[in-house]
Hints:
By secondary structure, the chain is α/β, with parallel strands linked by helices. It contains 9 helices and 8 strands. Strands 3-2-1-4-6-5-7-8 form an 8-stranded mixed beta sheet, sandwiched between helices. β1, α2 (47-58) and β2 (64-72) form a beta-alpha-beta unit.
Amino acid sequence: xxxxxxxxxxxxxxxxxxxxxLDEKGHISGFRSISIIFPAYNEAENxxxxxxxxxxxxxxxxxxxxxxxxxxxxxxxxxxxxxxMMQREPTLLPVHHEKNRGYGATLRxxxxxxxxxxxxxxxxxxxxxxxEIKHLLAWVGEHDIVAxxxxxxxxxxxxxxxxxxxxxLVRLFLGLKIRDIxxxxxxxxxxxxxxxxxxxxxxxxxxxxxALATWQGKRIKEVPVRHxxxxxxxxxxxxxxxxxxxxxxxxxxQSKLKRANNRQAPVTVTR
Length: 271
C-alpha cells in the first residue's frame, strides 16, 4: 500500500507542477494579500480573542487581508458573536452553516470564500500562537505549502495516540510521509486549491489536501510550531463517529489515487 504515492513519483521524476510566482525577470514575486481561515464549532468562549489576535498580528504583515470564520452550525453563541464583530471589524467575513457539517466541509467553505494570494488556516481553540505565522511565511517564497507540525503536542494521551495511529495509516495506505498531517497550522499559495478538487467532509480533509497536492507535484515545507493546551470550549475530533468517517474517506482516497496514479508528479518535502 505504501507504493501508491511512491510509484507515481518514480514514473514522473521529470515533471513539475509547482505554482509559479515568477515575475517577468524570473524572480520570485512577493505576496501582498492573505486569507486567514478559522473553522469554528461551539467556540463562543474563544472566538473573539481569536479574531482580535489574528487582526493585530496579520495587519502588521499585510495591508490586504481577510479573516474568514466559518461557523459550523454551532449550538452556542459563536454565530451571533462573529456577526456582531463584523460590524466593527471590516476585514472579518462570517460564513455560516445552518447545521453541523463536519470539519472538512467547514474548511472547504472557508477555502471557497478565500480571495487572497495566500491562504492560511488554523483552529479557533487558541492552541496555536498566530504570531508564528511568520515562521511559515519565511518559506512560502520557495514552497507551495508550508505545514506546521506540533513540536511538543499539548493534548491528552489518547489524542496523541490517535494522531500517531492516523499518521501511520496514512503512510501505509497512501505512502504520504508528513510528520504531523493533521496539524491545524498551514499556509498555502492560492494556486494549490485551484488545481485540486476537495471532497472530504470530515477529519480526512488535511490528508486529502496534502495527498492531492503531492499528486500535483506541489512543494511542501514542514516547520515546527508551538502547541498549547485548550483552556476553553470542548474538543470534538476524537469521537468514534469522526474516526470511522475518516477511515472510510482514507480508503476512498487510496482508490482515487490509484486510478490517477499515472498522472501524478513528484513532490518535495523538506524539513
